[in-house]
């Protein structure tokens, strides 16, 4: 049997790495750009919000588009768009300009996860989907690990503009490999009959025809995913855009040099993503139901994030690194399983649309949460105690996942597969 499906996951992993590398650059350049453009925390939060608003719109538009035109062409459009937008940051001359280019970046980057999750649904049987999702989703962390190594070096040697240009150009290289390497498993010349049978043995037969958003919104399982994303995505955005600044302000970390605490934190997230995807698959192989396997794993991950509330009692940077590493690892494990819930419950021709709806909800949460973050941090910065502001934010983050798990269980208590023809 061939194993070409794992090459597909490799392509998805690299695309997700590039996706997060491009968006992570600004958080590492934040101290430099604050000096150049005289930003306040509120100014920076507005730039983050511009990205989030566009990202929310992009998620739902690409989700619908990719279900119609397929993952191959949809990914091509998304990566091309966001790579151009990433490069354009280098010509920004004002805070408003940064907001415009961040919005353009968000419009393109929202296509990544609908395309990737749909690709996994097409290429993997159910027992392997969480692991495959965990592997490609770990690219979010690799991008965040590479950025603290690469960006400070480029900043010191060539300036902030070149950092945006170099990271943006990487996407165009990936497009070559994607276009020549991806096709549906039924038509791919490198897939043997045995591998195709393995891929398809527990797959659903997708319904024909277009799926209306209104039909999806009426289904309880859709809301399980939407609420899960709404409550937990803003936490990841906070980790992504504010952790470098947190370490710089609370522990005097120099972001002009490679940052070992950030590297450790995001490396832990990589381990959590892959390991988290493996655990629920392990439960399934032991004979557990899909419902019991996914929810048991997700409850364990939700509980692992609660200790982040203890950062206020930490006395050293490495104690904080330990708590944050556990939290981001658990988040990524949670995220791998949350995405997999969609392909567990919905037919393939609706997967990208549902992912788009949930992604939009998560991005709306990510749009609103920076308003709280910016106002709270500016207030405590004026009092000369910005660390206390971060501690309150960590309390909010630590409680979000248990609440999200309860919402998922309420709206999908048995994770019943959806039959779109009768809306059940």
TrEMBL record:
<feature type="transmembrane region" description="Helical">
    <location>
        <begin position="158"/>
        <end position="180"/>
    </location>
</feature>
<dbReference type="InterPro" id="IPR036259">
    <property type="entry name" value="MFS_trans_sf"/>
</dbReference>
<feature type="domain" description="Major facilitator superfamily (MFS) profile">
    <location>
        <begin position="8"/>
        <end position="416"/>
    </location>
</feature>
<feature type="transmembrane region" description="Helical">
    <location>
        <begin position="222"/>
        <end position="243"/>
    </location>
</feature>
<dbReference type="InterPro" id="IPR020846">
    <property type="entry name" value="MFS_dom"/>
</dbReference>
<dbReference type="InterPro" id="IPR050382">
    <property type="entry name" value="MFS_Na/Anion_cotransporter"/>
</dbReference>
<feature type="transmembrane region" description="Helical">
    <location>
        <begin position="263"/>
        <end position="284"/>
    </location>
</feature>
<protein>
    <submittedName>
        <fullName>MFS transporter</fullName>
    </submittedName>
</protein>
<feature type="transmembrane region" description="Helical">
    <location>
        <begin position="296"/>
        <end position="314"/>
    </location>
</feature>
<dbReference type="GO" id="GO:0016020">
    <property type="term" value="C:membrane"/>
</dbReference>
<feature type="transmembrane region" description="Helical">
    <location>
        <begin position="47"/>
        <end position="66"/>
    </location>
</feature>
<feature type="transmembrane region" description="Helical">
    <location>
        <begin position="389"/>
        <end position="412"/>
    </location>
</feature>
<keyword id="KW-0472">Membrane</keyword>
<keyword id="KW-1133">Transmembrane helix</keyword>
<feature type="transmembrane region" description="Helical">
    <location>
        <begin position="73"/>
        <end position="101"/>
    </location>
</feature>
<dbReference type="GO" id="GO:0015134">
    <property type="term" value="F:hexuronate transmembrane transporter activity"/>
</dbReference>
<feature type="transmembrane region" description="Helical">
    <location>
        <begin position="354"/>
        <end position="377"/>
    </location>
</feature>
<dbReference type="InterPro" id="IPR011701">
    <property type="entry name" value="MFS"/>
</dbReference>
<dbReference type="InterPro" id="IPR000849">
    <property type="entry name" value="Sugar_P_transporter"/>
</dbReference>
<dbReference type="Pfam" id="PF07690">
    <property type="entry name" value="MFS_1"/>
</dbReference>
<keyword id="KW-0812">Transmembrane</keyword>
């Amino acid at each position: 049997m061939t194993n070409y499906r794992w090459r597909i996951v490799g392509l998805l992993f690299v695309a997700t790495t590039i996706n997060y590398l491009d968006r992570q650059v600004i958080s590492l350049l934040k101290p430099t750009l604050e000096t150049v453009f005289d930003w306040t925390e509120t100014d920076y939060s507005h730039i983050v919000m511009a990205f989030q608003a566009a990202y929310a719109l992009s998620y739902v538009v690409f989700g619908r588009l990719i279900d119609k035109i397929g993952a191959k062409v949809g990914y091509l459009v998304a990566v091309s768009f966001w790579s151009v937008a990433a490069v354009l940051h280098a010509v920004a001359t004002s805070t408003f300009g940064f907001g415009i280019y961040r919005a353009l970046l968000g419009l393109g980057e929202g296509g990544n996860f609908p395309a990737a999750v749909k690709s996994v649904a097409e290429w993997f049987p159910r027992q392997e989907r969480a692991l495959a999702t965990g592997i490609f989703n770990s690219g979010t962390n690799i991008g965040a690990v590479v950025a603290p190594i690469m960006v400070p070096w480029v900043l010191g040697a060539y300036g902030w503009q070149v950092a945006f240009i170099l990271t943006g150009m990487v996407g165009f290289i990936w497009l070559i490999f994607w276009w020549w390497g991806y096709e549906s498993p039924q038509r791919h010349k490198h897939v043997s009959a045995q591998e195709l049978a393995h891929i398809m043995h527990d797959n659903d037969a997708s319904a024909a025809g277009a799926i209306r958003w209104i039909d999806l919104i009426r289904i309880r399982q859709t809301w399980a995913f939407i609420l899960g994303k709404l409550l937990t995505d803003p936490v990841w955005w906070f980790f992504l855009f504010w952790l470098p600044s947190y370490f710089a302000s609370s522990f005097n970390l120099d972001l002009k040099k490679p940052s070992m605490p950030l590297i450790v934190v995001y490396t832990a997230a990589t381990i959590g993503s892959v390991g988290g995807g493996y655990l629920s698959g392990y439960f399934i192989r032991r004979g557990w139901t899909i419902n019991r396997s996914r929810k048991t794993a997700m409850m364990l991950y939700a509980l692992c994030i609660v200790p982040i509330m203890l950062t206020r009692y930490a006395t050293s940077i490495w104690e904080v690194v330990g708590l944050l590493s556990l939290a981001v690892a658990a988040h990524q494990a949670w995220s791998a399983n949350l995405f997999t819930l969609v392909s567990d419950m919905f037919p393939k021709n609706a997967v990208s649309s549902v992912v788009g709806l949930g992604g939009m909800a998560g991005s709306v949460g990510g749009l609103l949460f920076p308003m709280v973050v910016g106002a709270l941090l500016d207030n405590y910065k004026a009092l000369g105690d910005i660390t206390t502001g971060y501690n309150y934010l960590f309390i909010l983050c630590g409680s979000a996942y248990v609440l999200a798990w309860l919402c998922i269980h309420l709206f999908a208590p048995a994770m019943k597969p959806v039959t779109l023809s009768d809306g059940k």
